[in-house]
Amino acid sequence: KVRKRWVSRMDDIQLIQFLANALKSATQQRDWVQVRNVDKQIASLLSSLSGQPLSEQKRQALMMLKDTHHRVNEICRQQSAELEHKMALHRNNREGAMAYAIFSGDEDSE
Questions:
Q1: Cβ proximity of 27 and 77 under 8 Å
Q2: What CA–CA distance (Å, rounded) separates 64 from 53?
Q3: Cβ neighbour number for residue 43 with a 10 Å cutoff
Q4: Which of 16, 35, 40, 97 has the highest Cβ tally under 10 A?
Q5: Which runs of E-coded beta strand occur in the chain?
Q6: Distance between CA atoms of residues 95 and 6, nearest Å
Q7: ∠ CA(76), CA(95), CA(90), 5° rounding?
């Protein structure tokens, strides 16, 4: 999955950097589907690296990816909280509008 034909020529360090940049880009564009896709690719890469000896360069690239992933995760949490807040406001507004509709319907019948 991770290693499509054009990616297969990359070494692990280039792939780590590529995925970190793809994750940043998708986040900046608020493309949450792409964020999820890149996240799956990162998980696949990390699984493939499991148990392998890591060079210092690869270790540094992975730390950079980890930092990027943490920042993106925080942005996702913030976006989720904002969406939850907006949905709660929408629910409250809808309930208020329904109450007014019921109230004004009662006045019409008097």
A1: no
A2: 18
A3: 12
A4: 16
A5: none
A6: 53
A7: 25
Between CA 59 and CA 65 the distance in angstroms is 10
CA-to-CA distance for 27 and 64, rounded, in angstroms? 16
Q: Which band of pLDDT confidence, cut at 50, 70 and 90, is reported for residue 85?
A: confident
CB atoms within 10 A of CB 49: 15
pLDDT tens digits for range 38-76:
999 999 999 999 998 899 999 999 999 999 999 999 999
Query: CA 63 to CA 75: how far, in whole Å?
Result: 19
DSSP class of residue 10 equals S
Residue (of 68, 71, 52) closest to 12 by Cα position: 52
15 Cβ contact partners less than 8 Å away, ≥ 6 residues apart: 2, 3, 7, 45
